[in-house]
Design goal:
By secondary structure, this protein is mainly alpha-helical. It is about 65% helix and about 5% strand. The chain is built from 23 helices and 4 strands. It has a 4-stranded mixed β-sheet with strand order 1-2-4-3, sandwiched between helices. The N and C termini lie far apart (about 75 Å).
């Protein structure tokens, strides 16, 4: 074991990265396999938009989702291979995670890491209960964003260190590909070159030239877009999600809800004598939410290891790379703040760019411990105990990520299968979610938030429209007992015939069937 570890330390970094990338691809295959076709709610949108793209219904595609590039990738692979839309999305998902793994581990190397740091980076990534355990199996556009975001940061770090033209072009091209998946990539595209102006030890003229080189493709694309908008009848409203970025009233969009909620907090929560602190209280709440979600998405161990790296008096990774990493983290925090300020929602998925940078920093602290593993002195060191604890916990998390899911995990698919078998005459079924309709093989009719879906159900009950359905399939949860009470009181013509619960019993798909007396 000792000799194997010594050989690993001195071996070339490239074969190790390729081996770990292959491991990441196999990990993605396994996580997709054990899901048994489970998808995220947003996946339904992407799949339906892909179907419209295959049918060349471009207007319908844009109506379903106004930033449809992930759907176009799915549709293209579907037509190229003949695979189903679902399988095409799984293949893309696997390929994107392979690119993300390769880019992340190469970024560790480019930042000054050797084999121990690269191995540590792989351990941190593969054991992530959120990125790998929760998000990777979801067939959503975020995986494409991760892949090209990390590839872009890799080229940007290379450019910052070596100042080569090709790296300046590649970083912009990769981030533009990331932009096809998530529109916030444009913030990195415009902001990251500004970091080059702050590099120490170089004359301002050289820093300015570096900034122009790193912004060259972006500036050309911006000029071309401006010319198109000025010389054609294409308005900014035709730019899909980009109109959110180039909107002239973006400040009002971001701050309007913030000030409205701050006034409510001041007057109705803090009261007459403290109402002036409404905005401050709201902003402090936002900061707490951002901090909590960052730790959740990244993991406590990774966050602590990253903090240890940052607290080192002498940097243990390349100074220019550290300059970029800190810059990316700052931009990520700004984006998170803008999102939560504008829409009062901050999905943990939006934290992932920051999480990757924290994971990169953590890889150097963990790598330092791993690099001393072959030394006899570590046997009596506190580092030995720490290493065993860290690797033990991460090993257990990795195993949990790839183990078959417990009974009840696919309760929605089970409910859909039951319905298909029971409803052999294809009578009308009321579904309250697009995902359940997808599992049941029913046509797409749109997606709604859980709150909006429940209001639609109440409306259908109150106006009698619900009576035209033979079956009703509803999502119910323990935290909303009032919904069960409403059903018991108002759905007298139906009887519960099946219930499928999640593995933790907190959520269920409950199926009702119209009683003979109600026909």
């Amino acid at each position: 074991m000792k000799n194997m570890w010594q050989k690993l330390i001195v071996m070339n970094t490239r074969p190790l990265i390729l081996l770990l990338t292959l491991t990441g691809i196999l990990l993605a295959v396994e996580t997709n396999y054990i899901q048994h076709g489970w998808i995220n709610n947003d996946s339904v949108l992407y799949f339906e938009a892909a179907q419209r793209a295959v049918a060349k219904d471009w207007q319908g595609m844009m109506q379903i989702f106004p930033w449809p590039f992930f759907s176009l990738f799915i549709a293209g692979l579907h037509q190229l291979t003949g695979f189903s839309i679902h399988l095409s999305a799984q293949i893309l998902n696997t390929a994107f995670f392979g690119i993300a793994t390769f880019s992340f581990l190469s970024l560790v190397r480019e930042s000054g890491g050797n084999n121990p740091e690269i191995a540590a980076g792989a351990i941190l990534l593969f054991s992530s209960s959120y990125i790998v355990g929760d998000i990777l199996p979801m067939l959503i556009r975020d995986q494409g964003f991760w892949a090209f975001f990390l590839l872009s940061i890799l080229f940007f770090v290379r450019y910052t260190i070596q100042q080569r033209w090709q790296d300046a072009l590649w970083w912009q091209a990769a981030m533009m590909l990331a932009l096809l998946f998530r529109v916030e990539a444009i913030v990195y595209l415009f902001s990251l070159p500004l970091l080059l102006l702050g590099l120490k030890g170089k004359p301002f003229k050289q820093r300015l030239i570096a900034f122009i080189q790193a912004s060259s493709l972006t500036l050309i694309a911006l000029v071309m877009l401006t010319v198109v908008l000025l010389t054609t009848h294409i308005g900014i409203e035709k730019l899909g999600r980009l109109k959110e970025v180039f909107s002239t009233d973006i400040y009002q969009q971001i701050t309007q809800k913030l000030f409205e909620r701050a006034e409510i907090m001041g007057s109705q929560v803090l009261g007459e004598y403290l109402d002036e602190f409404g905005l401050t209280g709201l902003l402090l709440t936002f900061m707490y939410v951002m901090l909590k979600k960052t730790v959740f998405s990244t993991g406590i161990i990774t966050t602590v290891l990253a903090a240890v790296t940052l607290r080192k008096t002498s940097p243990i990774l390349d100074k220019k790379a550290l300059h970029v990493v800190v810059g990316v983290m700052t931009i990520s925090l700004v984006i998170m703040f803008l999102i939560i300020t504008k829409v009062f929602v901050l999905s943990s998925r939006y934290i992932i760019p920051l999480s990757f940078m924290l994971m990169l920093l953590a890889a150097f602290s963990l790598g330092q411990i791993l690099s001393h593993l072959h030394q006899k002195t570590i046997a009596k060191s506190w580092k030995k105990i720490l290493l065993i604890l860290i690797l033990g916990l991460m090993g257990l998390t990795t195993i949990k990520n790839i183990l078959p899911k417990p009974a009840g995990y696919t309760y929605e698919q089970e409910a859909a299968r039951w319905l298909r078998q029971e409803n052999s005459r294809h009578e009308a079924v009321y579904f309250d979610s697009a995902r359940l309709r997808y599992y049941a093989g029913e046509p797409y009719t749109g997606t709604l938030t859980p709150l909006a879906a429940w209001k639609n159900f109440e409306k259908a009950v109150s106006n009698g429209e619900i009576n035209r359905y033979r079956f009703i399939a509803l999502n119910l949860a323990q935290k909303h007992p009032e919904k069960s009470a409403y059903i018991q009181k108002n759905l007298s013509g139906y009887a519960e015939v099946a219930r499928f619960s999640s593995d933790d019993k907190k959520k269920s798909i409950v199926i009702f069937k119209k009683a003979p007396s109600g026909e």
